[in-house]
Design brief:
This protein is mostly helical. The chain has 9 helices and no strands.
């Protein structure tokens, strides 16, 4: 029983660290993402913080997984079985929200580059996340096409990759020029690939 209680406390503390880390990075940016800054934010030593994670890279990967979980709860779970309009609205809402948390966008973009190395702790996270997102887009686009909608004469998997590539690229453009409207651009691409009577529009 004591061991079970200790495990539960460890899980709860780990979750607390991730929740606090999301707040700190969103507010302070990538410069606030050092192990020391995050440890201070949760009242732990650096060694104490890394007791819950094997490395700084694993900590950052866990932070991004937590961000995905929070976004899913807030904006809805992306589900390839749902209507494309719902997937579009939820995804564009997430992209719009990203403009409010630049530190997390910076963390995602920097870690994505490092994680191109198959040995990096975040490699599997990015591969799995990309595959799941493309599958959601492709399934919804294919179903939309089967319903008779006019879409480009390109297979759904390729269209899904284009959507994902533009989304990732818009984050880089936005970091260079914050006046770029990521959400509007992604929404416009959805409209080009699978037109509707009206776009999602501003929040």
């Amino acid at each position: 029983m004591a061991r079970r209680g200790s495990y539960a406390k460890g899980v709860a503390k780990r979750d607390e660290i991730l929740e606090r880390a999301l707040e700190v990075i969103a507010r302070e940016g990538i410069r606030g993402a050092s192990v020391k800054e995050l440890a201070d934010a949760v009242g732990l030593s650096q060694a104490g913080l890394l007791h819950y994670f094997d490395s700084k890279e694993e900590l950052f990967t866990a932070i991004l997984r937590k961000r995905d979980e929070v976004d899913s709860r807030r904006f809805g779970e992306a589900d390839g079985d749902g209507p494309l309009e719902d997937i579009r609205a939820g995804y564009v809402a997430i992209v719009r929200h990203n403009a409010e948390v630049p530190g997390l966008v910076q963390l995602f973009s920097r870690l994505a580059v490092d994680a191109a190395d198959p040995q990096h702790p975040a490699h599997d996270y990015f591969v799995e996340r990309s595959a799941a997102l493309r599958s959601t887009f492709a399934t919804a686009l294919e179903r939309r096409r089967a319903e008779g909608a006019t879409t480009p004469a390109v297979d759904a998997d390729t269209l899904a990759r284009i959507l994902q590539a533009v989304s990732d690229g818009m984050q880089l453009q936005w970091m260079q020029d914050p006046s770029v409207d990521m959400a509007a651009t992604v929404d416009a691409l959805f409209e080009l690939l699978a037109p509707t009577s009206a776009g999602v529009g501003p929040a």
